[in-house]
Please model this.
Amino acid sequence: MFYYTYLLKSKKDGKMYTGITKDLRKRLAEHNAGKSMYTKGRGPFVLIYYEACLLEDKARSRELYLKTGMGKRYLKNRLGASYL
Model:
């Protein structure tokens, strides 16, 4: 089983959301349906990046890293400025 660290972009306001989940498709559907407390009212969302990890603690540590300044620079270099 994989744990996914993911990055969503709101089509409504252009803001990003980073999270982790075991079921990426289900979690994206929950975000788009307004069932997430943190993203409610900001959807619809598009998935722009994800990573798969075998261990939950590794996925959580990647989530925390991607939320830092260095992590945001990593994503900018990896995805290009047009995505962020």
Q: What stands out?
A: The two ends are 29 Å apart (CA to CA). The first strand starts at residue 3 and ends at 10.
